[in-house]
Amino acid sequence: MRTPLVAGNWKMNGSRDANRALLSSLKDRLGAIQGVDVAVCPPAVYLPEIAESLSGSAIAVGAQDCSDEASGAFTGELAGSMLAEVGCRYVIVGHSERRERQNESSAWVASKFVAAQAAGLTPILCVGEQKADRESGRTELVVSEQLDAVLDAAGVEAFDRAVIAYEPVWAIGTGLTATPEQAQEVHAFIRNRVAGRDPRVAAELRILYGGSMKADNAAGLLALDDIDGGLIGGASLDAEAFTAIVRAAGERVGA
Fold first, then answer.
1. What's the start-to-end Cα distance of the chain, in Å?
2. 95 counts as catalytic
3. What residue ranges do the domains of the chain occupy?
4. Catalytic site residue from 49, 95, 135, 157
5. What tens digit of pLDDT does each residue of 62-73 get?
6. Rounded to an integer, what distance in angstroms lies between the CA atom of residue 152 and that of residue 144?
7. pTM for this one?
């Protein structure tokens, strides 16, 4: 059985005081959780101190982005090796906000995925469609284009050391949420797409749901066959809500 992963994407939120309070509460609440992998992905400026604070705990640390370059004249960029050196295990690549605001193409995201793995990081590859894509029946076309770019660049075996997060963009911060059936349909499509390259890799691949998973809808989503955890936005800033999601993931495996 695939071990669920619940990863909190803090986005551009946090302060030293708020971070200390949140992490202290999470460590207390999640100390006895078993059978679920947990990670937090804070803004880059806080990564070293958060990694130090979580050292020895069950909570891993991830970054929200990385460069596709190993080093050089790339002002403002952070290499995967730098993130690994300060204690990161995971890195999000291809988040919808970066695809839109920073114009990150699927080819660029694929290069970041490859660079992250070369640095020893586990990429959390985000794929998903806009509202117009959903309404025009283009969901599978969009998701397959984003996914295939990475499969072609890295090879299917690379997904032995990676995670996918499906994020319906229309359900992030809009008040809308994909139904469990809608989410499961796309998760199954993603797994089948990977299975077309290698059934074993697909069977073991963790696919997270990233469309506004919250404490009150987590259990229903996580009960589905192809949903292996969540990439959590706003709820990851609330220790009680985030813990509830982790516990729901634990119940999936009887933890």
1. 13
2. yes
3. 5-252
4. 95
5. 999 999 999 999
6. 11
7. 0.96
